[in-house]
Amino acid sequence: MVELRTAESIPAVLRKHAENTPDRNASAFVTHLDDPTGVTWLSYAELDRRARAAAVQFSAHAAPGDRMLLLHPAGPDFLIALLGCLYAGLVAVPSPLPGRFSHQRRRLRLIAADADVAAVLTADEVHGEVAGWAAEQELGAVRVLTLDSTADADAWTPPALSQETVAVLQYTSGSTGDPKGVVIDHGNILHNAATTIAVTAMRPGCAVGGWLPHFHDMGLMGLLLPPLLAGAASVTTSPMAFLKRPLLWLRMIDRFDIEISAAPDFAYDLCVAKVTDAQLAEIDLSRWRVAIDGSEPVRAAVLTRFQERFAAAGLRPEAVTPSFGMAEATLFVSGAPDTPFVIRRADTDLLARNEFRPAAGDRPGRDLVACGAPVDIEVRIVDPDTAEVLADGQVGEIWLRGRSIGRGYWGRDAGTAGFGAVTSTGDAGYLRTGDLGTLFEGQLYVTGRRKDMLVLRGRNYYPQDIEHELRVHHPELSGRVGACFSVRSRDEAGGGEEVLVVTHEVRGISDPDRLRTLAAAMRLTVAREFGVPGAAVLLLRPGAVARTTSGKVQRAAMRQLFEAGALEPVAEDVDHRHVAGPVAVAAR
């Protein structure tokens, strides 16, 4: 097996696989499980040949170091275009397709402008859609290209590449939705992939796969590139196929002997809700060794439900693997496969004072999932205000240092400063993640996001705790998402203190009186369970809560929408002494 940490570049590794094991399966894209023509396989030799041909084509339109915007549906064309960029020394900018909504098209325009792309790469079946978006956004001389099947792979000339050559700009959503491109070089990917391969015991010839979006860090850096660099097989399908029929994911794992797969927390919950007993009896998950849960807050109840439900299909308890990762660290930071996941019930009163201790007796507690031990990366828990490194069991901001950490944000000096943070003792070179957590008995626990933390009447509250408690007490909210945030009270007598606003999606209720009653009951629940009177509760239509492309709730964006009066609730319960709530529109 090639030693990735000392390899020159990604193409160097893939060319070695093509030379040593040309006929081994490298990647498959699944469209129909029950149709022999519904799986498209590429061998390592074919993957290398097509990547070289794509590099020859792209090099006619851009020079090494130029950025190329990749807009593809799920499928093999994306992988060829991505590798073609890397084989040509170009910088790949993977992004979602333009979409129908104005905010999606605007976000993509911001990415294209921020990266100053030289060309747009896409697939034949969506060329018209992408070309229409490019014309609409007035991208000028930027060409929209599809793969040219006549390009000559033998005409490829290897560019000068090293581990320091930039490979990818991985765009993430900022707190207001403005995208920021994390600069990831070949060395970042090689090092992080080596860590992932070692932790998961990935080996040549094994199958790794799932349905995650190829433009998202968990899909690209978790399910696509590591197996290819390991000499394994990457087996993927489209996210839409999974969302339409969650069983497809589990059947893929069974059919292709997939040993390692990954998904956000909601996907595991969806499988529990949608897979019937009859369907469960038809799948065998005993060969699924590593089921990574990451990308969004990992909920203890979801892990437990999934493990218990699918044990009947052979899923082993140690397979379910909570993890922590982020685009700024390429992807993987911590996780502990092959060991049963750990849940600690943390004392909520101590947690509010930034201390992590198991709750004693009947004291109120919050279940937190251990995200495993950090691997090949330095983790420090730091007071975000003083930069003092904290002891184990104290809650602070998670800081990271290591070769997997990206260089910073493309063209953003201010944001990139967070990649070179210095502790109070002068220890330098850390990434400030913005996540809060603690190290306890060697494992990393993530408690929330610093920017989302609510400070109400001098006490700390995690918004996800309030959102979760509301769903527990009000079944009408089950399966939907919410966003809690604070705004400054307009009550001058109260000193303009921060007050709580709750927004939550609701579905299946059309009676206005029932909706108003639910909103009022939710305010009472918050006051009773947390001792904080809610200034406003707004019930919203499904899809109204702002989320990133990976499904994370954007609470800061929701705060901005609330303050701008841009939310359209179907019902509300508002204390107008503190906030000027919007007027509810009729439920549809």
What is this structure, in a nutshell?
This protein has 588 residues and is an alpha/beta fold. It folds into three domains: 4-243, ANL, N-terminal domain (Rossmann fold); 373-452, Luciferase, Domain 3 (Luciferase, domain 3, Roll); 454-574, 2-Layer Sandwich (GMP Synthetase, Chain A, domain 3).
CATH superfamily caption of the largest domain: ANL, N-terminal domain
Distance N terminus to C terminus?
59 Å
Let me know the largest β-sheet: 8 strands, mixed
Structural classification: alpha/beta
> Which radius of gyration do the C-alpha atoms yield?
24 Å
Domain AMP-dependent synthetase/ligase: 15-410
Enzyme class: ligase
InterPro entries: AMP-bd_C_sf (IPR045851), AMP-binding_CS (IPR020845), AMP-dep_synth/lig_dom (IPR000873), ANL_N_sf (IPR042099), FAAL/FAAC (IPR040097)
Pfam family, one: AMP-binding
What would you say this structure looks like, in words?
It is built from 17 helices and 26 strands. It is α/β, with parallel strands linked by helices. The chain has three domains: 240 residues, 3-Layer(aba) Sandwich (Rossmann fold), CATH 3.40.50.12780; 80 residues, Luciferase, Domain 3 (Luciferase, domain 3, Roll), CATH 2.30.38.10; 121 residues, GMP Synthetase, Chain A, domain 3. Strands 2-1-10-9-11-12-13-14 form an eight-stranded mixed β-sheet, with helices on both faces. It has a four-stranded parallel β-sheet with strand order 4-3-5-6, with helices on both faces. A four-stranded antiparallel β-sheet has the order 17-18-19-20, with no helix packed on it. The longest helix is centred in the C-terminal third of the chain and has 19 residues. The protein is globular, with a radius of gyration of 24 Å. The termini are far apart. Belongs to the ATP-dependent AMP-binding enzyme family. Keywords: Ligase. GO terms for molecular function: adenylyltransferase activity; long-chain fatty acid-CoA ligase activity.
